[in-house]
Amino acid sequence: MAIEESGEIVLFGYSGNDTHLNRIISQQRSDKNLKVVDWLGSGSYKLRNKFWSEQLAGDVELHLLEDVLTFSEW
Questions:
Q1: Domains in the chain: how many in total?
Q2: Where does the source fall among the domains of life (predicted)?
């Protein structure tokens, strides 16, 4: 219900390895913007963008940081 009511989806510091959660998000996201703040140590931008796009069934706005706690863009 929270996904349905939201204007966008933001995943912050989440590894993406919970297939149950990924499936729910991918089924419910419809045309919502999806932003992901991820750890740079997880892999290159190209690799992580592909991973997130596959896991969440669509485009994502990906931010890779050495330390996710330093994120302050929005």
A1: 1
A2: Bacteria
